[in-house]
């Protein structure tokens, strides 16, 4: 059996047609799986000594969220070093990165594996991987035929990456450009609202506008800030981080603007503040809603005039800083309540971004779970960490009030639990390894815990439990939401959002 001219021509045409690169890549690996009659195929992008899946066929969905480092995957390292078609022997001792990740074959190891490195000139930009359960599946195809496929895929991937580079650098048509992989913070997610967020990040990153990033606790606002900075002309300069919620009022001004020797007790030398450290770069102010009104006024002055004064110094210093701010509060409500300055709000929210909660991101939950599974595998020195189909369904059924941060902790905890019940380096995560109720609310005395309804649906039971806990807290705190949030050890803004989602308030 060999590739016909019609097959090769069909692949080439598919790679030149379609609305977007993702479309073409998906059709490519689906076609290859059919033509080669293999069990799984994948197109991977190479960046910073790791392979990142772009399109898969025949593999578990969480593979799209996994990041395969060369150090953690010897077969992929061999493909990266080869420079040509790699055929792994059926009895190879090197673990296959997809072992256990082909649906329906979770307990079996892949037997036939071919790797095709993809190059743009001398630069490795990606790889095609082909896997089958039958050891002789690819023997009928010559290396020359596989090189033709590799060349077609490499050309398409190179064009896609070059277009991405040109767009991110806002380069004009005709300007000289050599292909270089663009370093960027990896934001995992293919849901429509995440794709929209990535598009908005790309648009605003190239500008010098201040950005207000809003979203619930644990959604990844800091990751958004990093992405904006890395996509901006300031990327070569510092990104300086400051958590406003962790700032004691007594040192907050000094942290922001610095101080001179003798400005106050303990000021034994001159000290630069975060604005000076971020000069010509970006300053990320996390939890901006926690700043006092007095500091908000001083921050507004910096944004308006571009100069700062160190504590205890009469002189002004000029700074060139782009400010990115993040909050889990509704700052419009804070403005109406008099807790946040309206003029500062408008200065910060020139280009507002909203990070969607995990419960609104659909199948991104599975992709992110795959990413955290791979992290755990490397950290704990395991050979495989696999999500069962039951575990994937379980993760999709939960509401994730703690968002991505809660998912990360849930996966890490599940891996530890599953490892304790198995010998060897393979871990298979089942639904029972995830116990979400523990992270929903603060612990209560057994006698105080609300009774759960007799139902078979985990989400309904969880939501009933949350409603009863909130009602109980409100009752004990005279319907004061802030006091109830403290009693439940959660953020008041998140408590309001949760209550709205549960239908407890308008």
UniProtKB/TrEMBL annotation:
Organism (species)? Pseudocitrobacter corydidari
Keyword list (alphabetical) reads: ATP-binding, DNA-binding, Nucleotide-binding, Transcription, Transcription regulation
Q: Per the record's keyword annotation, is Repressor included, yes or no?
A: no
Q: Enumerate the spans annotated as Sigma-54 factor interaction domain.
A: 187-416
- InterPro entries under this entry? AAA+_ATPase, AAA_lid_NorR, GAF, GAF-like_dom_sf, Homeodomain-like_sf, NorR, P-loop_NTPase, Sigma_54_int
Q: Which Pfam families match?
A: AAA_lid_14 (PF25601), GAF (PF01590), Sigma54_activat (PF00158)
* Protein name, entry field: Anaerobic nitric oxide reductase transcription regulator NorR
HAMAP family of this UniProt entry?
A: NorR
User: Is Nucleotide-binding included in the keywords of this UniProt record?
Assistant: yes
Could you tell me which SUPFAM superfamilies the record lists for this protein?
GAF domain-like (SSF55781), Homeodomain-like (SSF46689), P-loop containing nucleoside triphosphate hydrolases (SSF52540)
